[in-house]
Design brief:
Elements: E1 8-11, H1 17-26, H2 29-34, H3 39-60, E2 65-71, E3 74-83, E4 87-95, H4 104-119, E5 122-128, H5 134-139, E6 143-148, E7 151-156
Parallel strand pairs: 4-5
Antiparallel strand pairs: 1-2, 2-3, 3-4, 5-7, 6-7
Helix pairs in contact: 1-3
């Protein structure tokens, strides 16, 4: 089934910092609902964690692309991808809540699968075992090849 959901990508810019924190925070909303911290403490924690994650990605994956996902010209998520010789590794793909469920994430993953197929390399991503996107990756043919605590390395290979 060919999806026709329209989106564009553009490189992340300095002025995207607040939106990157919002996108990151959206992935931790359920967890933050469980802690008894006030809003200011939660905000400081999430900003710190987002900054640490970005620093880690920049340090360990300096050649990776980091793009904003746009729908109708408006940023609705981010895509961080490291293209290696033998693998394409999705470091992060996250959509804001209002952009989820419209097929954009599926389309992005399918296009990365086509790129991997064209290059004859695997496509991989670490997904937390409790993350609702795990089902998407499984439906698209990704298989678990490794467990690291609660994170699973999900891999798709051309021809699979």
């Amino acid at each position: 089934m060919e999806l026709t959901i329209a989106y564009t990508l553009r490189p992340v810019r300095e002025e995207d910092e607040a939106l990157l924190v919002e996108i990151y925070s959206s992935t931790r909303a359920d967890e933050m609902a469980l802690v008894p911290w006030d809003a200011a403490v939660k905000d400081a924690f999430l900003r710190s964690q987002c900054s640490a994650q970005l620093a880690h990605y920049r340090s360990h994956f300096p050649e990776a692309t980091h793009d904003m996902i746009l729908m109708d010209g408006e940023p609705v998520g981010r895509l961080y991808v490291d293209r290696r010789n033998a693998e394409i590794r999705i470091l992060d793909v996250t959509l804001l809540e209002q952009a989820r469920g419209h097929g954009v994430g599926t389309r992005i993953i399918q296009e990365l699968m086509k790129e991997a197929d064209d290059r004859d390399v695997s496509l991989s991503i670490y997904v937390e075992s409790f993350n609702r996107s795990l089902g998407l990756f499984q439906r698209l043919g990704f298989v678990k090849t490794e467990e690291n605590g609660a994170s699973w390395l999900m891999v798709w290979r051309p021809g699979s």
